[in-house]
Design goal:
The protein has 6 helices and 100 strands. It has a 5-stranded mixed sheet with strand order 2-9-8-4-5, with no helix packed on it. It is mainly β and about 1450 residues long.
Length: about 1450
């Protein structure tokens, strides 16, 4: 089938008027060129005249100064006329000139882009002149590549001066070739004028990205004139579409850089990008393709996201959303799509369709009129849902069709006129819609469209839709729940294989119209079945792939027969042999040819194409023929570097370098031409071409100079000739030193090293060559440095220590006994940087055969590439010691019988590549290592994961086992015990498991007779293995003891037993719990707790059936140490668990308590006491056994008279007795739980200390006063009952320091001593009130007030007097008895009543915190024991009627 002709895009075809414009512009450019040449000639003449004038002026000045100045004054260089920038057409010359002065005369050197210009490097290209002090540089036939910054540097001993100018070489429009395939940005019909001249330098190339990443496309340019505030005008295009700045595209220009930033890549961004600059003479542009692959899906196997979501047909409450389907290569087919919408200004996405829609468009209705929306799409397949597409641009739902006509008057005024006004009829009830039809029909839905009634009236209208099945006249409402305002509506609920008719009714507030004319019958259509009328396209036709570059291929195909609204194509590729396809483009491409980039050089690919439309992807096309990726076949470039290797007077031996570009095919031969230096005509050297790059030209004339040129030949033909060589004299070489080495090449190029190789000189001089020196210099420098201090005896040298990324040149000098010979030609520059993907030679051993090999995988190959192996850099051609096999990118060198003579450096080079090579040094240690591995493979053993081992099983059985890494089902083995083979029998079981590789023997009766050596021998195919275990002496005793223990344990567990023995844990309230777990219990099982063999009675009896028992030990302390025992038993047996709480166990319990208590500890609290200042820390539980430390200013505090440390069950405290200023500072309590400390800190300084000290002083004074105040020590009863006419003696002991005053009261009235009432106070200790002959009237409440200057005490006694013969009354405490007749006593009353002296405990002292008055001063007596106080006493009681300690009146 013939290749389809290329169709010129419409935008490239010129209309007749366009052709006229083109001819006009061509004529205009021609006139501009003439004007430019005339201007250049005028400037040359003017400059020449100016230079002459300057020279004459300088001559005159010099003549006038010669008489006065004996010599010229030294002067630094100075430019009298500087360089000027030029813009010229391609293939025209340009001349740069300047005038420079200085004394002595400066030396002038020219540069381009800071690189020195050497005229001899490009003969005929540059010409440098110096006439009359004017220095000039002439560039003949300028090319676009000659654009750049040119500079001239003038230097003399006094200094240096520089002048720069820019040269911009323009190509006439239409003069260049097309740079890319269809899809270029169209040329505009008119030329945009600009005063700037822009030249593109390096620009962005083919770029690859992933969704979600950010990427920038950068183009560098030179602009003349370069005005900072006036950058050139630049436009960016994607697939012929002008791009504007948005949230997805950011553009910037300035500083010689134009940048397009894509901050969040999406497949919508894939395409051909073009940057276009407007220049003085039109435009200049550059294009390259950007590929964007799918982001990793959230669900494995889910498809890629859709793209290019667009919204159309927007109405009041309806829009049509469409998108393009993603490519699917290895994913499951797409079953449908979900569409989401979001109102502008919100962040919440709402799903529009409940079930996936199968086509790439969805009508969305029910929108809010006047609201703005964004839409996105998601693809669905059987594995999951894709990531969402990029959201669409905002679209506003608004009414499109209206009965209002707007008329403009003079472009200023708008007049709105309704249709009803034009017709003169005012409508209230609207008419029916017209032209009802289906605009979309597919398997999922249909879209009804109609024309609104006209005129429709001023009231808003909406629509009702009715349907009927087939030809019936039973109409049903469709949109019962939706008030439809748009003349569009999607209908989803239609049954398959049934046709329907529809009609529309218009409604407003005044009423409804008549129904519209019904539609013709409409039926849903499956587009995948009816491919001719709708649905996916048919498959594309023949696919042809051809070479393009080393990493790309040109693919073209025939369009499908049925396009069905084609969106574009997807191209897939697969590496031969992989059976895996990958997408070449991720966005549908519109044309039928495509350049596939990003391919791996040297691999072979096949391609296929799928057509895309709204219904999905077509069937795949047939695969293309396999294509090897390499550059397209062409003739080779020209050879270069022709050098003379030898001359005998009649012949010359020449050498040259191979072309830099072979043209994608192997170079087969070379043609040589020669001419005499004074001649113009070239003659062929020989009718037969040279096969190698060294050739001897015969039949030359001695003494004549000859020039030579060479042409290379490949499969495509004869390439370009080389530049003529230097003129070589045909004179015999007679020097004693060697001639030059030649053919310098570079291999194993890495980031810091390069291997340099060369060929030995053809002319060796008067003696054999003994070595070589290698010189090195950086590119652009002539300062060569010798790399090797001593000459090397071989034709290679590895140069190390290079600068990464730097470029170097090399030359080689041969040495013989007569000296060092002529240096070779300088090599081409080489950059010290490894090729991307470079791999090294790997040494290995074949796992099947045991062969030792060196393996190499090339990072790139060409179709003509070959692997060349060398030893010590001498190519291996035929050898009995190694064999070489190569396939694709890989090559393997296998040693036949490795020995010491195989030691050395092995290298491999891949021909027809950019120097792909590597080397590997096989030393003796490496060889021995791989020989051992090879021996093991050739003499295999069963690899063991573990050696023979044993373990004791539950019943005291002993299991001997070994595990192999791998076993086959045919494995054989045997166990040997003490040199006797053991077989599986009663009491000994032997088995194996192939899946795990375990072989085991279980001995059920392990006794003293089992001592000895155990061995297992394994045979598995050719592999063998053996492992032994020696169980004698102490090792056997340990095993036997463990077996007996396990046997007893098994017996123990037959009855009730402890599954977990006693242990402890501490609860959150610091209660220690002894716990154990029980097993094999029943209802009759008993359980008891013991401590020191005494049974413990617990509040809640233990329940063995619960499976666990616990013993709580609250308030744990040292007294709880001891041996605890739990006993479990029934008729089947008894088990005991003993737990010794002492030593380490006791310490662990205390630490556990400390951990909980420390975590619960409160902050330190300040509490003042009469003795001093106390710091208290409250916690869940405290015991003195806890590791508690107090610190003052980081110094540990020990308990002493000054610092007392103590605590209760709820808190720990530290008291500072009689504090002074020395005790100020930080105090810390640290509770250590054995793992970490728990610290609390209090700062006792500043105001805190002042307040605490004042409170301490107040409490101290109060305690002193309490201690020394007046009080009743004892002797008085609460109640006294006495018979009338008896004597009553109330006697008590009082105390106080100083001695107190004592006052007696009766019924709150002071009692004075008289004849009946006698008051005594003896020795300051004993006080008594005696009443002689008491009467009933003497009953009442008596009290004594004891007081000194520190306070006192008020004690009451109730006295009840009864008459003789009456019953002894029981008066209430504190009340008087009423007088009554005195009965006769039945029994004689006692003469006196003795008051008991009960002992009472010391009352606790509560210390309030308020600061005492400053007037209180407390003495500080020596501490003494507290005096006991009687019960029911009151502190300093006050008598009634507000009388404080009444004092008897002195008489």
């Amino acid at each position: 089938m013939a290749e389809p002709a290329y169709t010129v895009p419409d935008f490239r075809e010129r209309a007749p008027e366009g052709m006229q414009e083109y001819q006009r512009m061509a004529a205009h450019f021609g006139r501009d060129l003439v004007n430019l040449q005339q201007e250049l000639h005028r400037m040359k003449v003017a400059t020449h005249e100016q230079v002459k004038n300057i020279e004459i002026t300088r001559e005159v000045k010099g003549m006038s100064l010669r008489k006065d100045v004996p010599a010229e004054v030294p002067k630094a260089p100075d430019f009298l006329v500087s360089l000027r920038s030029h813009t010229v057409w391609e293939k025209t010359p340009v001349k740069l000139f300047c005038t420079v002065s200085g004394q002595p005369n400066p030396i002038v050197k020219w540069y381009r882009n800071d690189v020195a210009i050497e005229p001899l490097s490009a003969p005929g290209k540059y010409k440098i002149e110096n006439k009359y002090g004017v220095h000039s540089l002439i560039i003949s036939r300028c090319a676009v590549t000659d654009s750049g910054v040119y500079s001239v540097v003038a230097t003399n001993p006094q200094g240096k001066a520089t002048s720069k100018a820019t040269v911009c070489v323009r190509r006439p429009q239409g003069g260049g070739e097309l740079s890319h395939l269809p899809g270029q940005v169209p040329l505009l019909s008119r030329v945009h004028r600009s005063k700037l001249e822009v030249t593109l330098l390096d620009s962005f190339g083919v770029t690859f990205g992933t969704e979600g990443e950010s990427i920038s496309l950068v183009a560098n340019y030179v602009v003349v004139p370069d005005l900072p505030n006036l950058p050139p005008e630049v436009m960016w295009y994607r697939d012929d579409t002008l791009l504007m700045a948005s949230r997805w595209t950011e553009m910037s220009i300035g500083g010689g850089v134009a940048k397009l930033a894509l901050p969040h890549l999406n497949k919508d961004d894939e395409g051909l990008y073009t940057v276009r600059f407007w220049t003085k003479d039109g435009t200049t542009e550059h294009s390259a393709y950007l590929f964007v692959k799918d982001a990793t899906p959230t669900v494995a196997g889910a498809p890629g996201a859709p793209m290019d979501v667009t919204v159309s047909d927007a109405n009041a409450d309806y829009v049509l959303v469409s998108w393009k389907p993603p490519n699917t290569t290895h994913e499951a087919p797409i079953t449908g799509y979900f569409v989401d919408r979001r109102k502008s200004g919100t962040k919440d996405w709402v799903q529009c369709n409940d079930s996936p829609v199968k086509v790439c468009k969805l009508p969305v209705h029910g929108l809010t009129e006047g609201a703005s929306y964004h839409f996105r799409a998601r693809a669905v397949n059987k594995d999951g849902i894709s990531l969402p597409s990029r959201m669409s641009c905002g679209v506003t739902s608004a009414e499109v069709e209206s009965d209002v006509e707007v008329i403009k008057i003079e472009g200023k005024y708008d007049i709105a006129i309704r249709q009803e006004e034009l017709q003169g009829v005012y409508v209230t009830i609207p008419g029916p819609p017209t032209n009802v039809h289906a605009t979309e029909i597919n398997k999922t839905y249909i879209v009804l469209s109609w024309t609104p009634p006209s005129p429709r009236g001023r009231a808003p209208v909406w629509y009702l839709i009715e349907k009927c099945e087939g030809d019936s006249h039973i109409w049903q409402r469709v949109n019962t729940a939706v008030q439809l305002r748009s003349p569009r509506y999607p209908v989803f609920d239609m049954e398959d294989k049934k046709s329907y008719r529809f009609r529309i009714i218009t409604i407003n507030k005044y009423g409804s119209s008549e129904p519209s004319e019904p539609t013709a019958p409409i039926q849903k259509v499956d587009p995948y079945v009816c491919l001719v009328c709708a649905g996916v396209p048919s498959a594309p036709g023949q696919v042809i792939a051809s070479r393009n570059t080393k990493t790309s291929a040109f693919v073209q195909w025939e369009a499908p027969k049925h396009t069905n609204n084609l969106m574009g194509y997807y191209v897939d590729a697969s590496v031969i042999g992989s059976k895996t396809w990958f997408p070449c483009n991720h966005r549908p491409y519109k044309h039928t040819r495509f350049v596939v980039h990003g391919l791996v050089p040297g691999d072979t690919y096949v391609f296929r194409v799928q057509a895309v439309n709204a219904y999905g992807l077509s069937e795949e096309s047939q695969e293309s023929a396999p294509l090897f990726i390499d550059a397209a076949l062409s003739t080779p470039s020209s050879p270069y570097g022709i050098s003379l290797l030898n001359c005998n007077g009649s012949s010359m031996t020449l050498a040259w370098k191979r072309p830099k570009h072979t043209g994608g095919s192997k170079i087969t031969s070379y043609y040589l031409d020669k001419r005499e230096a004074e001649s113009v005509a070239w003659k062929e050297v020989s009718p037969s071409p040279a096969v190698h790059r060294v050739f001897t030209v015969e039949n030359l004339t001695g003494g004549v100079f000859y020039e030579f040129k060479v042409q290379a030949v490949n499969l495509a033909g004869v390439g370009l000739p080389s530049e003529p060589s230097k003129a070589f004299a045909c004179e015999a070489w007679t020097m004693a030193e060697p001639g030059p080495a030649y053919d310098i090449s570079f291999w194993e190029v890495r980031d810091s090293s390069i291997l340099v190789q060369w060929r030995a000189p053809v002319y060796s001089g008067e003696g054999p060559i003994t070595g070589y020196f290698v010189d090195m210099a950086k590119k652009g420098s002539s300062d060569f440095v010798t790399v090797n201090a001593e000459p090397v005896g071989h034709c290679y040298l590895k140069v190390t220590g290079l600068e990464i990324g730097a470029s170097y040149v090399f030359r080689v000098r041969a040495v013989n006994d007569k000296g060092v010979g002529k240096a070779s030609d300088v090599s081409d520059p080489v950059c010290a940087k490894a090729l991307p993907g470079t791999k090294e030679i790997v040494c290995g051993v074949d796992e099947e055969t045991g062969d030792i090999f060196l393996n190499f995988e090339a990072c790139e190959v060409s179709e003509t590439s070959k692997f060349s192996w060398s030893k010590s850099y001498n190519e291996i051609t035929e050898s009995s010691r190694v064999s070489i096999t190569s396939s694709g990118r890989k090559s393997k060198l296998t040693f036949v019988n490795p020995e010491t003579e195989d030691l050395g450096i092995y290298s491999v080079a891949v021909t027809d590549t950019d120097g792909v090579s590597s080397s590997y040094s096989v030393n003796e240690e490496e060889l021995n290592k791989v020989l051992d591995l090879s021996y093991n493979i050739r003499h295999p053993t069963v690899p063991l994961k573990t050696e023979l081992n044993y373990e004791i099983l539950e019943k005291g059985h002993v299991r001997f086992w070994v595990q192999a890494l791998k076993l086959s089902s045919s494995v054989n083995y045997r166990f040997i015990v003490n040199d006797k083979a053991v077989t599986s029998a009663e009491g000994c079981k032997i088995s194996h498991d192939v899946s795990t590789g375990i072989i085991q023997m279980t001995v059920e009766h392990f006794t003293k007779a089992s001592e000895g050596t155990y061995t297992i021998q394994i045979h598995d195919g050719k592999a063998k293995s053996q492992s032994s275990l020696v169980l004698v002496g102490d090792a056997f005793k340990v095993a036997l003891k463990e077996a007996e223990f396990q046997r007893k344990e098994h017996i123990r567990k037959q009855g009730p037993h402890f599954s977990e023995y006693l242990s402890f844990h501490v609860t959150d309230d610091c209660t220690v719990m002894l716990v154990c777990k029980l097993a094999n219990v029943k209802k009759e099982t008993t359980f008891s707790w013991f401590k020191e063999d005494e049974e413990i009675t617990v509040d809640v009896p233990p329940n063995p059936m619960s499976g666990s028992c616990s013993l709580p030990i609250p308030m744990f302390s040292r007294k709880d140490q001891g041996i605890y025992k739990a006993v479990l038993g029934d008729d089947r047996g008894k088990d005991t668990s003993v737990y010794d709480i002492s030593g380490k166990v006791f310490e662990d319990i205390i630490n556990a308590i400390a951990s909980i208590a420390g975590s619960s500890a409160s902050e330190l609290v300040l509490q003042c006491t009469p003795e001093g200042i106390r710091l208290q820390c409250y916690m869940k539980y405290y015991t003195e056994e806890m590791k508690t430390s107090w610190f003052h200013r980081d110094s540990k505090i020990s308990s002493s008279e000054k610092m007392r440390i103590g605590g209760t069950s709820e808190m720990a405290w530290m008291q500072i007795c009689e504090p002074t200023d020395k005790e100020k500072g930080h105090y810390t309590i640290e509770i250590h739980d054995g793992k970490k400390p728990h610290s609390r800190t209090f700062d006792l300084s500043g105001q805190a200390y002042t307040d605490a000290y004042a409170e301490f002083q107040r409490l101290k004074a109060a305690a002193f006063a309490e201690k020394n105040r007046g009080r009743v020590v004892g002797g008085l009863p609460d109640v006294v009952t006495i018979m009338e006419k008896k004597s009553l003696s109330l006697t008590c002991t009082v105390w106080g320091d100083p001695s107190p005053e004592v006052t007696w009261f009766k019924n709150e009235q002071e009692v004075l001593s008289d004849d009946r009432f006698k008051i005594t106070f003896e020795g300051g200790k004993f006080s008594s009130l005696t009443i002689n002959s008491v009467y009933v009237e003497d009953s009442g409440k008596y009290s004594i007030n004891v007081r000194n200057k520190y306070g006192g005490e008020f004690v009451e006694i109730t006295v009840s007097v009864y008459k003789q013969g009456e019953e002894i009354p029981e008066p209430k405490l504190g009340q008087m008895s009423r007088s009554a007749p005195t009965p006769k006593p039945a029994t004689p009353a006692p003469q006196s009543v003795k008051t008991p002296t009960p002992q009472t405990p010391t009352p606790s002292i509560k210390s309030p915190t308020p600061t005492p008055p400053p007037s209180v001063k407390s003495p500080t007596p020596t501490p003494a024991p507290k005096s006991p106080t009687p019960p029911r006493s009151m502190r300093s009681p006050t008598p009634p009627r507000s009388m404080r300690s009444p004092t008897p009146t002195k008489k």
